[in-house]
Amino acid sequence: MFIGAQVSLYPMTSDFVQVIMSGLKALDPYRDDLRIETDDMSTLMVGAPGPLIDAIRDLFATTARNPAHSTMHVTLSRGCPGEPDDPSCRCDILAIAQNTPLAQRQLQAQEAVAEAPDMGVQIDVQFSLYVLGQDRHMDEIYGCIEFLKSSGTFLRSKNFCTRLRGDAGAVFETLRQAFLRFGPAEGHVTIDLTASANSPSKD
Amino acid sequence: MFIGAQVSLYPMTSDFVQVIMSGLKALDPYRDDLRIETDDMSTLMVGAPGPLIDAIRDLFATTARNPAHSTMHVTLSRGCPGEPDDPSCRCDILAIAQNTPLAQRQLQAQEAVAEAPDMGVQIDVQFSLYVLGQDRHMDEIYGCIEFLKSSGTFLRSKNFCTRLRGDAGAVFETLRQAFLRFGPAEGHVTIDLTASANSPSKD
């Protein structure tokens, strides 16, 4: 199993380099657990979903505490057949999810969101979950959407994606649960995610 | 068939509202052909891939001519089983692609990129193509990657995505061909795309 993300941070301020640099310090506690490589377009993070999603959450929560309008784009992937197996990506939730009925996975996901830490910063997210290499991919998608509607972070459905809103702790736990508990445990699942904070245009 | 995109523009300047507003004027010639709806996180565009990808290209090319570092995120989708059929999304390339062997589709895609207009602005892109609801999804992905390597806009492969670089005309034609000529004609195919211009960190 290979699990990771390409992450890009976009502060809408002329001072964007400084905001990105101070946001990146939030990754320091995770550098032992994750492989982190930055190029001119994104930062690759590879590792288990515990530290991986925590690191992405802390990166954006830290950035969102800056008053500037900032957004972040993340391409999350697990189980891509084109990537090598990596022992550092081992994930117990995936092993448990295998053979667990959909209704029970939905409950486990709800419980995990209820226990998420309060990060003290409100964020908006929209994302798409893709379950690949499976004939009946929409069953798992619809099951995931049912969980999202009960998660406490659901804002509304949009064409091609779902909007979440709430504290960064609950929102990123919702994303981690969607990523891990839906779609086959050994399958290829991806998320296309955009986060936003301090937007001048609220709805 | 339902075809469309969620598009977000991110200028890294304190003057971002003005840059976004002037970029959006590039969409005016396409408003008769596309359904365009903007909320606080993204702009939905629905319609046939001809005007759809041209509109997204012109939006980003116009923005990239501004000296500010700007990025754009696009979630492209065709054939999502959860969306209604929309006659405005009718696409002849998809009908032709049906029953055409992979090698021939690769050649047709190369020819289309060679004929792309020169927009006079260099951009960087990274993107992931997802073919959903099919057991053998990686065959079409690998076929598409072969085309990308011969497109003239290929920069390099990255984990989870592919980097393109070149004139906005050739780059967005490469993306349109990847979106339309690979994966089943009636299937569910999506692209997770990030574009970047005027970055201070070049590689």
UniProtKB/TrEMBL annotation, chains A, B:
Which SUPFAM superfamilies does this one have? Answer: MTH1187/YkoF-like (SSF89957)
Name the UniProt record assigns to this protein: YKOF-related Family
Ranges of residues in domain Thiamin/hydroxymethyl pyrimidine-binding YkoF putative: 4-83, 124-202
Q: What's the short name of a Pfam family annotated to this entry? A: Ykof
Listed binding positions for thiamine are: 9, 43
Q: Which organism is it from?
A: Paracoccus seriniphilus
Output the Gene Ontology terms for molecular function. Answer: thiamine binding
Which InterPro entries does the UniProt entry name for this protein? Answer: HMP/thiamine-bd (IPR015835), MTH1187/YkoF-like (IPR029756), Thiamin/HMP-bd_put_YkoF (IPR011522)
